[in-house]
C-alpha cells in the first residue's frame, strides 16, 4: 500500500486539551502496571530497554520525520551523553553528592553540548549534504573516542555502580525494578516534552523547513538557524536516553555511539513511521522486542529488520503508523469488510515470499555453520542439507512465486483501499 | 629515499584503487543526485564473489565474471528499487541505498562468515618483482595498477567518443536538460548505475586479495570514498582522480609515521601542554591517519560544498 | 515622499548571458505597479534580485529608503517585503490553516520559541483565520496544501505571501495557468489584499494588468524601457517596437 505520509499535526482544538492528555495518562498507568504483568527479570530488563529506545527514537524523529533531516550519526549524542552521565556516576561513587535520578540531566547536557558543536557545522546544509556531514561526524567521534582511553576507557568503555551513590529517600536504585521506575518516569516525561515541543512555534517551523526550506526564508526565518535549534534540542533528548542507558547498563562503550547504533535507531524509527508523533514509539517497542525475541531463534534477525526497512522505504514510506493512519478512517466508517477479500488475496503470495526469504536466509546461515564443522540445526523443524541444491532451489522458487502472486494481487488491493477510503470520506 | 619511493608506489596503487571506487559513485551522484551509500558494499560483494568464483574457476575467470555479475545486480537494484522510490525524493533514495548497504552488510557475513576469507593472489602473479627499501615488491601490485589505468582509459574513451558518453557528460553539467536530448533517461541511469557498480565490483576483485576480504571492508572504505567524491566535486571525474591520489598518498604516508602527535606538533613549532590529555599527544600520526578523511569530508561539505574541481554543490 | 521601492543600476549575468542590464525602477508607496514584458525579458530574475533569492552583480535596491542590496531573504522580509512564486511554493504536508499560520509567525512575535504553545498566540491565530476567509478557503482549512486544487493553491500562495502583513508585496504571475473565471476571482483577491499596501506584480495577462495597475513598467532585454500610468505606456512607441505580436494588439 502506498499509504500517503500523514503529517504529525495534532489539530488544535482548545476544548480537546484534556482529551489530548488521555493517551499520556494511559501511558503512565501502563508503565506502572507493566512490570507486574510481564514475567521475570528478563521481561523487566526488556521494558527498560524499550523505555530508553522510545526516548531515543522520538528524539531521532524530531529530525527525520518532523524536520526532514536525516542524521546518520544520532547515536553520537546518546553515547556522549551516556559517557558524561557515567563520569557523574563515578563521581557519585567517589562521594560527590549527585543523586542518581539526576543522571539523565547530565546526559542531556552532554548531548546538547555535542549537538550544538556538530550542528554548528552540519545544519548550514540541508538534504544529502547534511546527511553526509553527520556520517562524517559519526565516524570521527567514534575514532576520537577510541583514541582517548583516559577519558572514554578505550575498547572496554567506562563502567560504574549505580547503587553506590547516596541513597535518595532511602532508595538506592540497586534493584532492577527501582531502576525501571526511574527509567519509566524519565521516558514518560521526556516523551511528553517532545510532544509538547511539536505544538510550539519552533516545532511548526521544523515542519515548514522539512516541507520547503526555501520558502521559510521568504517568510522571515533563517532555515539554517531553525535546523540548528531543532538539532540541538534533538541532541538534548538523545542525551537523556544516553543517561538512562548509562544508569541501566552501568557501562558505556564506544559501541553505544557506533554507526551501527545510529543505523539501528534509523531503522526502528522508520519502521514505526516517521509521519506521526507516536510512530517511533511503535518502532522502538517492536524492534527492541524482536531484537531480543528473534536473536535467540535466528542469527539472521538483523537481516530481517533490514529487509523490513527496505520494504517499508519502497512500499510503505509512512511505516506502521502510516498504514494505521491510512486505514483508520476506513475501519471507523465500517468498511473494513470491503477490504478483507482483496487483502486476503494477497496473503498466499505474502506467505510464499516470506517462506522463500526465510528459507534462503536460514539456509545461508546454516551453510556457514556446516562449513565450520557443526551439524546444521533444522530449518523450521525440517532437517535440510544446506549444501544440497534442492533446498535452495525450492526456497528460491517459493520467493519468486510469492513475489509474482503479490505483484498480481497488489493492484486490486490498492484499488479496494482507495475506493473504501473515498467512501469513508464521503460519509 | 627508497623509503619515499615505496610510499609513493603504494600510495599510487591505493589511490588508483580508491579512484576505481569513487569514479562510479561520482558519476551516479552527479547524474542522478543520489548518493549511493551502498557503493562500497558492491566493492565488498565483488571481493567475496571473486573469492568464491576463483576457487571454482580461477582468478582470471573471476576477473571477467564478477564485474559483470555485480554490474547486473546494480542494474536490477536501480531498475526495481531506486526507480520506485525516486518519486518520493532524495531523502527516500538515500534511505533506500542506506537500507541496501545494511542488507548487503548482513548477507555477506551470513554466507561467508564474520572472519576474513582466504582470498589469495593468483599464483601466476605471486612473486616479488623487485626490491625496494629492503622490501620485496609484489608483482601483483603492479598488475593492480595496470588494471586501474586500463579502466581509466576505457572509461575516458567511452565518455569522450560514444553517444552514451555524450549523454552522460550532458547530464553531468545540465541534469535538468537531458530529457530534451531525446534519450531514454531512465535507461541511461540504469546503465550508469550498473556500470558504476561493476567498477566497484572490479575494484573488489583486484583489491580483495591484496588487502583482506572481510565483512567490515565496506564500512572502513565507504566514508573515505564519500570524502573523495565530495572533495573532487560532484560528478567531476578529474576531481575524483586527483582526490583519490591525494588521499591515497596521505594515508599511505601517514601510516608509516610513528611519531607521536605531541612531538610532531613541537617539531612544527606549535607548543602543546602535554600535561593535559596526555594520551592525545602520545598517539602516533599513524593512528590518527584514518580520521583524516572524515575531517576532510566534514570540512569540504561545510565550507566548500562544490568540492575542489566541481561546478555544482551537493 | 520616499519611494516604497527604488532600484538603480541593477545588473545580473549568468555566465556570459546578461539577463538584467541596468534596471531602474521606482515604485511609489501604496501604488499597484505591474511589470510586464516579453518572455525572457528578465522579470522573474528581477524579482529574485529584489527579494534576495539571487545576489546582484551591481546596483542598489532601496526599500523605503533603506538599502537592502545583498541581504538574505529573511532579512529582507523582516524589513517589510514579501513575495510569491511563479511556481507554487507552499508547505505541502501542512494544512491550509497551518500554512497561513507559519507564514504569519515571524511578524506575530513567535520568534523561535520552543517553550510556548503555538495556540497561546491568539493574534496569530486570528490573523490566520482572517486570511483564510479573505481567500475564501474556510472549507479547505484542514486540507493538506499539497492536496489542494491548482487554483486554490495559487490563492494560498498569495495568502502565505500576505499573511505576515508585509507593507510591500511582490507577486510573480499570480494568475498563471488559470481559467477565465479563476483569473477573475484572483484579481478580486489581489485587489483586496493590496489595499493600503504597495504591490508589484509580474503579469502577462494584459487584461489583468490594465484593470489593476496604477503604474506599469515595461521590461525588455534586461532594461525598463518605459514606466508610467497605463495610458502613457500604452501609447509609448518604444513599447510598441519591443512588444510585438499578440501583446501589441491588446495594447492597441
Main sheet specs of chain A: 2 strands, antiparallel
Mind telling me the C-alpha Rg of chain A? 23 Å
Whole-number average pLDDT of chain A? Answer: 87
CATH class wording of the largest domain in chain A = Mainly Alpha
- Cα(first) to Cα(last) distance of chain B is 41 Å
The assigned structural class of chain A equals mainly alpha
The quaternary state of the protein chains shown equals: heterotrimer
Your description of this structure?
The complex is a heterotrimer of chains A (427), B (314) and C (252). Chain A is mainly alpha-helical and 427 residues long. In chain A, 73% of the residues lie in helices and 1% in strands. Chain A starts with 16 loop residues before the first helix and ends with a helix. Helices cover 70% and strands 3% of the residues of chain B. Chain B is built from 13 helices and 2 strands; from the N terminus they run H-H-H-H-E-E-H-H-H-H-H-H-H-H-H. In chain B, a hairpin with a 2-residue loop joins strand 1 and strand 2. In chain C, strand 1 (3-14) and strand 2 (17-28) form a beta hairpin. In chain C, the strands form 2 sheets. Chain C has a 6-stranded mixed sheet, sandwiched between helices. Chain C has one domain (3-251): 3-Layer(aba) Sandwich (Rossmann fold), CATH 3.40.50.300. Chains in contact: A-B, A-C. The interface between A and B is large, with 48 and 46 residues.
Task: Write a short abstract of this structure.
The complex is a heterotrimer of chains A (427), B (314) and C (252). Chain A is mostly helical.
Write the layout of secondary structure elements.
The complex is a heterotrimer of chains A (427), B (314) and C (252).
Chain A: H1 17-37, H2 40-67, H3 75-93, H4 103-122, H5 127-147, H6 149-152, E1 158-159, H7 176-197, H8 201-211, H9 213-217, H10 223-249, E2 251-252, H11 259-272, H12 279-295, H13 301-315, H14 319-332, H15 336-344, H16 347-371, H17 389-426
Helix pairs in contact in A: 1-7, 2-7, 2-8, 2-10, 2-11, 2-12, 3-4, 3-10, 4-10, 7-10, 8-10, 11-12, 11-13, 12-14, 14-17, 15-17, 16-17
Chain B: H1 2-32, H2 39-57, H3 59-85, H4 90-112, E1 128-132, E2 135-138, H5 139-161, H6 163-173, H7 185-208, H8 217-232, H9 237-255, H10 261-267, H11 278-282, H12 285-288, H13 292-303
Antiparallel strand pairs in B: 1-2
Helix pairs in contact in B: 1-5, 1-6, 1-7, 1-8, 1-9, 2-3, 2-4, 2-7, 2-8, 3-7, 5-6, 5-7, 8-9, 8-13
Chain C: E1 3-14, E2 17-28, E3 32-36, H1 43-51, E4 58-63, E5 66-67, H2 73-78, E6 81-83, H3 96-104, H4 122-135, H5 150-163, E7 168-172, H6 180-193, E8 198-202, H7 206-212, E9 215-220, E10 223-228, H8 230-235, H9 237-242, H10 246-251
Parallel strand pairs in C: 3-8, 3-9, 6-7, 7-8
Antiparallel strand pairs in C: 1-2, 1-4, 4-5, 9-10
Helix pairs in contact in C: 3-4, 3-5, 4-5, 5-6
Amino acid at each position: 500500500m502506498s499509504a500517503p505520509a500523514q503529517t504529525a499535526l495534532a489539530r488544535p482544538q482548545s476544548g480537546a486539551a484534556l482529551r489530548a492528555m488521555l493517551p499520556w495518562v494511559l501511558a503512565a498507568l501502563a508503565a506502572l502496571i507493566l512490570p507486574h504483568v510481564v514475567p521475570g527479570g528478563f521481561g523487566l530488563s526488556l521494558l527498560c530497554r524499550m523505555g530508553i529506545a522510545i526516548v531515543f527514537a522520538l528524539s531521532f524523529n524530531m529530525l527525520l520525520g518532523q524536520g526532514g533531516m536525516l542524521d546518520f550519526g544520532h547515536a553520537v549524542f546518546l553515547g556522549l551523553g551516556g559517557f558524561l552521565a557515567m563520569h557523574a556516576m563515578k563521581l557519585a561513587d567517589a562521594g560527590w553528592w549527585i543523586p542518581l535520578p539526576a543522571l539523565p540531566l547530565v546526559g542531556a547536557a552532554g548531548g546538547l553540548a555535542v549537538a550544538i558543536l556538530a550542528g554548528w557545522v552540519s545544519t548550514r546544509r540541508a538534504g544529502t549534504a547534511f546527511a553526509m556531514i553527520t556520517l562524517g561526524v559519526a565516524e570521527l567521534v567514534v575514532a576520537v573516542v577510541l583514541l582517548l582511553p583516559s577519558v572514554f576507557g578505550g575498547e572496554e568503555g567506562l563502567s560504574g555502580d549505580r547503587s553506590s551513590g547516596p541513597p535518595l529517600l532511602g532508595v538506592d536504585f540497586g534493584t532492577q525494578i527501582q531502576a525501571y521506575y526511574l527509567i519509566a518516569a524519565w521516558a514518560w516525561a521526556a516523551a511528553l516534552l517532545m510532544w509538547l515541543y511539536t505544538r510550539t512555534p519552533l516545532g511548526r517551523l521544523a515542519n515548514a523547513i522539512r516541507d520547503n526550506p526555501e520558502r521559510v526564508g521568504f517568510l522571515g526565518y533563517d532555515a539554517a538557524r531553525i535546523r540548528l535549534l531543532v538539532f540541538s534540542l534533538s541532541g538534548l533528548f538523545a542525551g537523556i536516553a544516553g543517561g538512562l542507558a548509562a544508569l541501566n547498563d552501568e557501562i558505556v562503550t564506544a559501541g553505544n555511539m557506533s554507526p551501527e547504533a545510529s543505523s539501528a535507531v534509523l531503522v526502528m524509527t522508520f519502521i514505526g513511521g516517521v509521519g506521526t508523533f507516536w510512530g517511533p514509539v511503535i518502532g522502538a517497542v517492536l524492534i527492541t522486542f524482536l531484537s531480543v525475541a528473534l536473536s535467540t531463534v535466528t542469527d539472521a534477525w538483523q537481516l530481517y529488520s533490514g529487509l523490513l526497512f527496505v520494504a517499508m522505504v519502497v512500499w510503505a514510506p509512512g511505516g506502521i503508523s502510516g498504514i494505521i493512519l491510512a486505514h483508520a478512517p476506513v475501519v471507523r466508517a465500517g468498511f473494513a469488510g470491503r477490504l478483507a477479500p482483496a487483502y486476503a488475496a494477497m496473503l498466499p503470495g505474502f506467505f510464499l515470499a516470506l517462506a522463500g526469504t526465510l528459507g534462503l536466509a536460514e539456509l545461508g546461515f546454516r551453510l556457514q555453520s556446516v562449513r565450520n564443522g557443526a551439524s546444521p540445526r533444522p530449518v523450521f523443524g525440517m532437517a535440510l542439507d544446506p549444501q544440497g541444491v534442492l533446498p535452495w532451489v525450492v526456497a528460491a522458487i517459493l520467493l519468486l512465486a510469492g513475489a509474482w502472486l503479490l505483484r498480481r494481487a497488489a493492484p486490486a488491493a490498492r484499488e479496494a483501499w482507495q475506493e473504501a477510503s473515498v467512501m469513508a470520506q464521503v460519509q | 629515499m627508497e623509503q619515499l619511493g615505496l610510499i609513493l608506489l603504494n600510495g599510487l596503487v591505493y589511490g588508483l584503487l580508491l579512484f576505481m571506487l569513487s569514479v562510479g559513485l561520482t558519476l551516479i551522484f552527479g547524474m542522478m543526485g543520489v548518493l549511493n551509500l551502498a557503493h562500497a558494499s558492491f566493492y565488498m560483494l565483488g571481493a567475496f564473489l571473486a573469492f568464491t568464483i576463483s576457487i571454482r574457476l580461477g582468478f582470471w575467470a573471476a576477473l571477467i565474471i564478477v564485474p559483470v555479475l555485480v554490474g547486473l545486480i546494480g542494474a536490477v537494484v536501480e531498475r526495481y528499487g531506486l526507480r520506485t522510490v525516486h518519486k518520493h525524493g532524495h531523502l527516500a533514495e538515500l534511505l533506500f541505498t542506506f537500507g541496501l548497504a545494511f542488507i548487503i552488510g548482513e548477507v555477506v557475513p551470513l554466507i561467508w562468515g564474520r572472519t576474513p576469507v582466504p582470498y589469495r593472489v593468483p599464483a601466476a602473479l605471486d612473486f616479488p618483482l623487485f626490491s625496494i627499501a629492503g622490501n620485496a615488491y609484489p608483482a601483483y601490485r603492479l598488475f593492480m595498477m595496470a588494471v586501474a589505468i586500463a579502466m581509466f582509459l576505457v572509461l575516458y574513451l567511452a565518455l569522450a567518443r560514444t553517444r552514451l558518453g555524450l549523454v552522460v557528460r550532458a547530464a553531468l553539467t545540465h541534469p535538468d536538460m537531458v530529457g530534451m536530448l531525446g534519450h531514454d533517461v531512465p535507461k541511461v541511469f540504469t546503465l550508469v548505475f550498473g556500470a558504476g557498480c561493476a567498477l566497484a565490483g572490479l575494484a573488489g576483485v583486484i583489491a580483495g586479495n591484496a588487502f583482506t576480504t572481510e565483512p567490515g571492508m565496506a564500512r572502513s572504505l565507504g566514508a573515505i570514498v564519500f570524502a573523495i567524491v565530495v572533495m573532487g566535486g560532484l560528478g567531476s571525474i578529474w576531481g575524483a582522480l586527483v582526490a583519490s591520489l591525494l588521499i591515497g598518498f596521505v594515508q599511505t604516508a601517514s601510516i608509516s609515521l610513528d611519531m607521536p602527535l605531541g612531538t610532531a606538533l613541537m617539531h612544527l613549532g606549535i607548543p602543546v601542554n602535554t600535561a593535559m590529555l596526555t594520551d592525545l599527544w602520545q598517539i602516533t600520526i599513524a593512528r590518527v591517519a584514518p580520521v583524516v578523511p572524515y575531517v576532510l569530508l566534514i570540512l569540504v561539505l561545510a565550507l566548500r560544498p562544490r568540492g575542489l574541481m566541481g561546478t555544482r554543490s551537493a | 515622499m520616499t519611494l516604497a521601492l527604488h532600484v538603480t543600476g541593477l545588473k545580473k549575468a549568468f555566465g556570459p548571458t546578461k539577463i538584467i542590464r541596468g534596471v531602474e525602477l521606482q515604485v511609489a508607496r501604496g501604488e499597484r505597479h505591474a511589470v510586464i514584458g516579453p518572455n525572457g525579458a528578465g522579470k522573474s530574475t528581477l524579482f529574485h534580485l529584489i527579494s534576495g533569492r539571487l545576489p546582484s552583480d551591481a546596483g542598489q535596491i532601496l526599500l523605503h529608503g533603506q538599502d537592502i542590496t545583498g541581504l538574505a531573504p529573511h532579512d529582507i522580509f523582516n524589513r517589510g517585503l514579501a513575495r510569491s512564486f511563479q511556481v507554487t511554493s507552499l508547505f505541502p504536508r501542512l494544512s491550509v490553516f497551518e500554512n497561513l499560520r507559519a507564514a504569519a509567525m515571524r511578524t506575530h512575535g513567535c520568534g523561535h520559541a520552543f517553550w510556548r504553545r503555538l495556540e497561546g498566540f491568539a493574534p496569530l491565530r486570528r490573523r490566520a483565520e482572517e486570511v483564510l476567509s479573505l481567500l475564501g478557503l474556510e472549507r479547505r482549512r484542514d486540507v493538506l496544501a499539497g492536496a489542494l486544487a491548482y487554483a486554490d493553491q495559487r490563492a494560498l500562495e498569495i495568502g502565505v505571501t500576505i499573511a505576515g502583513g508585509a507593507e510591500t508585496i511582490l507577486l510573480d504571475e499570480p494568475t498563471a495557468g488559470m481559467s477565465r473565471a479563476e483569473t477573475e476571482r484572483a484579481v478580486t483577491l489581489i485587489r483586496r489584499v493590496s489595499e493600503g499596501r504597495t504591490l508589484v506584480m509580474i503579469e502577462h495577462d494584459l487584461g489583468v494588468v490594465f484593470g489593476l495597475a496604477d503604474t506599469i513598467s515595461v521590461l525588455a532585454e534586461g532594461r525598463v524601457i518605459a514606466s508610467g500610468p497605463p495610458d502613457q505606456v500604452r501609447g509609448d512607441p518604444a513599447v510598441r517596437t519591443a512588444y510585438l505580436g499578440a501583446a501589441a494588439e491588446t495594447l492597441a
